Amino acid sequence: MKKRHQNHTFLIHLVLCAALALIIALASRRISQDTRVQEQCGIEAAIEKDITSCYALEGAYPPDLQYLKDHYGLVYDESAFFVDYRPIAANIRPDYTVIAVHE
Asked: Could you tell me the pTM of the whole model?
């Protein structure tokens, strides 16, 4: 009888530990996803600021993304994000999209 009680206690502890490990793994994944979204929003805000600064200081929008990197210090993790930058004309605000690359 005592051995049977020990087996049940062991199984309960095992299930609780497995559930706790699952909860921690899911929470970690969620935090990682939230951080990635915040990072993407930060890149978009930086590009927006740099485009506006360029037009205000130079009277023309940046011709390409590299120009923002070279002259306005734009830096982002290129292995984690792809930026599609589409200039239209020197006096028309460019279109851009920031896309998270799958890990």
From this structure: 0.73
